Amino acid sequence: MTFRISRPAALTSLALAMAACYAHAETADTVVVTATRSAQPLANVISDTITINAEQIAESGAGSIIDLLQRQRGIEIARNGGAGTSSSVYIRGANSNQNIVLVDGVRIGSSTTGAANWSAIPLTAIDHIEIVYGPLSSLYGADAIGGVIQIFTKKGKGAPAVTAFVGYGSDNTREADATLSGATGGEHSFSYSISAGKEKSDGFSATRPGLSSYNADDDGYDKENAAGQFSLQIAPGYEAGAMFVHSELKSQYDNGSSSYDVRNKALLETAAVYGKAKFVANVDTLLQYSESKDNGENWSSAAASGYSRINTKQKDITLQNDIRVGEDIVQVLYDHRKEEVSTNGSSALNRDRSTNSWAASYNARRGANLLNASIRRDNSVYGAKNTGSLGYGYDITAQLRATASYGTSFRAPTYNELYYPSYGNANNKPEQGKNAEIGLRWDDGVNALSANYYHNRLTDLLVNTTPCPFGTTAYPYGCAYNVSKATLEGLTLGGATKLAGVNLSASIDLQDPKDDTSGKRLARRSKKHGNLTADYHIRQFKLGSELELSGDRYDDTANKNRLGGYGLVNLFATYTINHDWSALVRWNNVLNKQYDLARYYATPGSNVFVGIRYGYK
């Protein structure tokens, strides 16, 4: 069957028919931050947004954040092997560097590649995750074309508590973590949470025969992490705090017939201090200073010449004012971000750039009507970029809402695309996006349905162009140049119900991520993918199963190397021993399906993970 996205009305009807078995984790009192940069009930958010809460993460048995994201609607992944290897996340078909990743409000990622190092993000430190689909450049600036993923670490509350987890699984995978958290009461309350964790696995061979670097040995990883959050209530309306995340990943990958595997060391760090104040009764002010590091070291041989290093640092100062006008919120924001790159290789990359941004937004509810509008201006070495968005929602009934929105976005050229010798061009411009979407949501507290249709038109895409317009002598293998156009078009279907005591959840994405210049499908993206989950509670047990589905993809831009579609079956169970103790077991890829996320790179076969947890959060 060939799917063509040409009749949105018919597809929306199909969405409502198919969404009757989609379970949602959100509740009416769920509060989200990312969609508007301030805490809002999910019921007041126009943007297509989902949350992954602490219970879901605890029961997932996921080996990495990539495994967890792969099971979410609107998201596809590519990975060059196991949990410690290079990974990409595509939101609604957008490239990995066309999405923003935040950790407690701090932007992470490499300025040379433009993408976050997903393998270095510690799953054990995460409390919950928010995913907002669609362009958010008018709120967050460059790179928010496909969406924003914000990761929130654990925060202290209530009486002092200790939680701990240990687990063991296939490939000699070991995991352990512990958290101490709590909060004092009174007028000058103090909350704290500090956690530490370690993961280690022997792994499996990251490559398959056919790749020049193939070696049949196992490629494992070792990851250590620590995180903390601290806040002090100085007086009513006044708060000061600090937070940090530190994660170090050591991994290896094949180096052909050489007995020396390539070694990688990745360091991810974030740190922030902030102050919140209510100088005026109806104004909430936030001032935050943050830093993030994305450092990478590589040893391709035992010789000194085999060592390379690329370090990225981002410094950010944010001043945000949320002004309440009646029930409405007007937000005014200033942001200064400085990026620094240091390498032991090309001196052309050893430089810094600053971006100064001003933004304003307006959020209102009038009876059954919701309105959101935002504008932003970013100034940097690549010039000035203006972006904006406008969203409207209407509650047709208490259960049914229709939404419509339009937004512009852009992606800043990376250091590689601007300065890398014989590849970059300092005159390269930002990529630009224009997105329009409509949606329907039904939620009666028991059943939930959703359908979102989007059309995101991208221009000035930066691709490797051969021959390079700057001359074949200096650029013999092509260069980065603004020559392509693309359309990211699709429909995401979802809903929720409970049948005979079984919670059912399902989603399906029907999409057409296409390079308009060549007419080819974008690499490593399918035309359809989906998930189905069922779980059942019986006494102290929770039993569940998952089905992950994906259509075929192409590993290359020319669409010559086809990656077949696949279906994966996973089983999981949790057992509540008593108030403090619980156990879980997860069996992934039960049918031992061989599938490809990247050509000639291996994926996990049938694997089992078991663990025991003390404390709930």
TrEMBL record:
Its main location: membrane. GO terms for cellular component: cell outer membrane. A motif (TonB box) lies at residues 30-36. It is a multi-pass membrane protein. GO terms for biological process: cobalamin transport; monoatomic ion transport. Gene3D superfamilies: TonB-dependent receptor, beta-barrel domain, TonB-dependent receptor, plug domain. Residues 181-590 form the TonB-dependent receptor-like beta-barrel domain. Residues 47-148 form the TonB-dependent receptor plug domain. It comes from the Bacteria. Residues 1-25 form the signal peptide. It is found in: Cell outer membrane. InterPro entries: Beta-barrel_TonB, Beta-barrel_TonB_sf, Plug_dom, Plug_dom_sf, TonB-dep_rcpt-like, TonB_box_CS. Belongs to the TonB-dependent receptor family. This is TonB-dependent receptor. It comes from Duganella guangzhouensis.
